[in-house]
Design goal:
9 strands, alpha/beta, seven-stranded mixed sheet, Rossmann fold, two-stranded antiparallel ribbon, 194 residues, 28% helix
């Protein structure tokens, strides 16, 4: 089994943004993935999170929802490269395509466009009690929408962390910290249905 935290350079990449290794590790850990979990990755991009999730859920299934044709091809190529066969790509702009999802143990949202509340509603219909939603928020607007939505939901508990990763870079005889963009990771746990 490939350990969690595949180095970024191992993935086949293009112009589609990719979630960095350190954020992937935290995201997959927060999702609470078990070997038989069924997971949805909305806004899957290059498929880096989908691949990591599928490796952890070796007896489960991952549904990667992506609208960008380049991203769709990258997901397929990366799945083949890493020998991941429990991953299905849904070529759609979420919430489109979500009606074909089965019952979910976890959902990860890496990209939602302007549809976050609608996507969360669709996930809620499929998510089991005790299931988790993990949302990676790059912008203040996204975390604001996320928290506003969750505050209205008495059937969810949630927490948020902000992560700032700095990587050591050698510059001549010196070592400097090179900063990646900060990101909020919101973890929501479904307590019970309405």
């Amino acid at each position: 089994m490939i350990p969690l935290g595949i180095p970024d350079e191992e993935f086949i990449r293009g112009k589609v943004p990719m979630t960095k290794q350190e954020i992937r590790v935290l995201t997959v850990a927060k999702a609470g993935i078990k070997p038989d979990s069924v997971i949805c990755d909305v806004g899957a991009g290059t498929g880096s999170i989908s691949i990591e999730a599928a490796i952890q859920a070796k007896d489960g299934m991952v549904y990667a929802i992506e609208r960008n044709p380049e991203g769709i091809e990258l997901i397929k190529k990366n799945a083949e490269k890493f020998g991941v066969y429990n991953l299905k790509v849904i070529e759609a702009y979420a919430p489109e395509g979500m009606d074909e999802l089965p019952q979910l143990d976890a959902a990860i949202i890496g990209g939602s466009g302007k549809n976050l509340p609608i996507i969360l509603d669709e996930i809620d219909k499929k998510l089991v009690n005790g299931g988790r939603i993990v949302i990676n928020c790059i912008t203040i607007q996204t975390i604001a929408k996320c928290l506003e939505y969750m505050r209205k939901r008495e059937d969810y508990s949630y927490e948020a962390i902000q992560v700032q990763v700095n990587l050591l870079e050698q510059v001549g005889p010196y070592d400097m910290a090179k900063a990646n963009n900060p990101i909020y990771i919101v973890t929501c746990v479904k307590q019970g249905g309405k």
